[in-house]
Amino acid sequence: MGRIRAISVEIAVLGIIVSSAVPAAAAPTIGTVPRSPVAVSGTVQRDGRGVPADVVVVAWPDQEFLADLADGERVPLVTVALARASGNGSFVARVDPAALPAEYVAADGQVNLEVTAADAASQMTWNVSVRADATSSGATAWHSAKVDAAPAGAEPLGAAAVATSSAPRMVFDLGTGVVLDSTTPLDSFIDVAGQPLTEAEARDSLTTGVVGRDRRTDLAVRAGADAVASGVVVPMEPICDVVAVGWVYGVTEYFTHVQGASFANVKVTQGYESSHTLGIAYSGAGGGGTWTAGGSQTIKLGASGTSPAYTDARRMANKVNYRKYQNTCTGQITLRPASIHTILSNQTYTTRRTYSYACVSYKAGQTFTKTRGTNLTVSGGVKLPNISVNAQSGFNSLSSATWTWTKSGKLCANSNLGTATATGVGTMY
Length: 429
Fold this sequence. Notes:
With about 425 residues, the protein is mainly β. It has two domains: about 15-230, no CATH class; about 240-429, no CATH class. The protein has helices at about 65, 200-205, 215-230; strands at about 15-20, 40-45, 50, 55-60, 80-85, 90-95, 110-120, 120-135, 140-145, 170-175, 180, 190, 210, 240-260, 265-270, 275-280, 290-300, 305, 315-325, 335-350, 355-360, 365-370, 375-385, 390-395, 400-405, 410-415, 425-429. β7 and β8 form a beta hairpin. The longest helix is centred in the middle third of the chain and has 16 residues, at about 215-230. It is globular, with a radius of gyration of 22 Å. It starts with 16 loop residues before the first strand and ends with a strand.
């Protein structure tokens, strides 16, 4: 058997650790499988200082599988990677895309991951959606699902997409509850009125609950150690089930801010396969207590529409449906985005923003359509019953904002990356 990487640095699970009730891919022998691509990496800290910790990566079934799940049915979760954060807190978790059962992989390759970081006393959990695509060298690499696969012959994504065109990097702080997530930069946050957040306010939007280390985490880590010792990936016995228990319908999702002017109108188009990244929320034990954010999941809209053309500033909204899941041991409720309810349900007048970078002058008759990069992150953009969580959409050929000039005027960005790839763009007088 080939050489196994030391467990004190990293456990790279090259197959799947699964609940015994879930069909698994064949468990390969560690050492004979090519090195799997990085799915998520980062650092585990306590009050800003790195600490040794375990990182457990769980995959949820895809959007279509969960939509067909009846209330009362169990969600078949699988542990897909384990990593041991070293003394400075750094970790790397690798996932073999070929080893994932079909029900965990969407048609476009998206996989929804739930990442738990745990030191000896505490743990915290954050969700992120990733997708594996072939690189120019022919290898497979994970990256954020917020960025759509580039069509053949398309130009490179450019600097603005660096954060989302590679595997997510996370900094978990078990002291403060903050999770810094490379797929959601702090400078991308706005409030629901379209105004930028301070760094401290953005950090508040990336704060989750810290709880005591639980038995499920211990079992996942122990199973991973057994896998390394035996040379195979072994099944993980279930302890607590997660069960679908209901729906929350027609939740308002403010997903972007657009800004026209008297010299240029703007309209927003949402295509059928457009992706939106929406927040996940956790209750306290027993389904009550303090609710906290838990990262995000990217979903396909499955609907399309175009807004009217506006010459002022507007916050754009859809309505979405959320699914409720409950842990049968702790009673904790998880709210996860499930599907679209109503497309472009609301376009509310709001305050103009100041965009002062990379300004470009246009003349009457010219148009500009933004189809690249991720959008601004709307803090509290999804209004759930007990908590507001974040919302973000992406720009692509199916999801765009188009400005049409009737007189000469300027279009500016919120950074020097330029209007084509910056997160925020708008007309300026």
